[in-house]
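[User]
If only I could read backbone structure tokens as easily as an amino acid sequence. I have put the entry right below:
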Amino acid sequence: MDFQDNVQKWLNGSFDPETKSQIIQLRNTDPAGLEDAFYKNLEFGTGGLRGIMGPGTNRMNRYTVGMATQGLANYINARVEGDKSVCISFDSRNNSKLFAKISAEVLSNNGIRVWLFDNIRPTPELSYAIRLKKATAGIMITASHNPKEYNGYKVFWSDGGQITAPVDKEIVDEVAKISDPGEVRFEPDGPIGGIDVMGHDVDEAYLRDILSLTLSPGARERHADDIKIVYTPLHGCGVRLMPEALQRLGFKHIYHVPEQDISDGDFPTVASPNPEEPAALKMALEKADKVGADIVLATDPDADRLGVAVRDDEGNMVRLNGNQTAAVLTYYILTRWKELGKLDGRQYCVKTIVTTELIADICKHFGVACYNVLTGFKYIAEIVKKNEGQGEFICGGEESYGFNVGEFVRDKCAQVSGAMVAECAAWAADQGLTFYGLLQQVYKEFGYRLESMVYIVRKGKSGAEEIARIMSDYRMSPPETIAGAPVCKVIDYSLPAQTGLPKSNVLQFFNTEGDVVSVRPSGTEPKIKFYFGAKGDNAARKIALLKEEFIS
């Protein structure tokens, strides 16, 4: 459909006057923006919707949220027998509470019981609540670490993981059938499911189970007064639970960045509330130097990703990337499991295809299986679901600052990760090491690896077309060498017969020296991402070469 047809449909349809006024203003002042808002429907990406807020079929607004929820309700009512319920949570973003309320009302008006959090809560706590309440599904209103203009709508299933095939496509099909807001039950016209509020009771159960995953209580007790931690939620919902978790672990010196404790969807102190961005940690690092802290922990707005900074051998604070944090935590956890006699051959870990191979090397050393899955924590959760009753999930991670331990939560969890980082630091202190020193020990034992991710932003329809061309060009003419060494293997994840994994728009190029480049468009943002991995003492030089070859 031509985007102008969509525009006219909204202007003529049963939309509120404010929305129509915004469309007219957009048409008069920003024709390119109008096209971007209406040239397609906002699609399910990694388990739901995500987009810029505003009027239009390609925007997050009460209508696209309502239509998505009606489609989800239709799917649940058609496919699920017996009692049906959905847990809903939301973060600190603008309109998150409104979108959660609309979702709750639409589901209830379709006869589905709703469990709605009383205030902002982390995404991983929603995953936990689904399992606790034995719910059919879950909805999290968040756009994770995206800029303030964005919001999103993540859908989870009864196992606590984000929806995967075939459920995701089936829900998409149901949503696609809803072509007009008049089809959405914004108001009740029959029996309702009811909306129940949840809050402190779930918090307590969640914190209790997080603490049950820890492995070194003696080390924590010995170093509770030594280790100083600065924590920032970057204006998100982690402030409700992360400090509490650290305190319950016994750590006595937890410092805040007061300006960033304020839950605010405009994220006033940062350009981007993404702990992967160096600038996001600026205030926390300044606080760490002021108080002499050993560790900085930062969470994104929905508190599923964790950024970490630690002191190096010269006493300077250095940021760790997601690969480094995940590798150290995996090494620590597997070491403790072995020391405690908990490894019996049934255990396994999981990493994504773009995450450091160092994790696989560590797992091999401990005799623990390591699964390799597509990008996205939902695929880690999918492995956990498939292995229920057959194996025991220890931990899993991805380079994009996501990590989890145990099976209580089926998504990445910054609260779990933060607790483990703090405890790992205490355990390392027992060995006469800092967290940074432990990382260097891991490199010494398993070989040095360095990873880096670079993305290119291409917005709008023309940007999407350019990203598609880039991927097509790499498929037709893959590089013959990378970082000066011959390419010996190319993996195209759009070919399931070749990979044994679900179809995905990802390409990987491996050279004879163990270096790798992965290229993939983001599923939720107007970006194409390049993941560079280099092996050996000259890894830094090779990373620079790879960036020059692919980005220039």
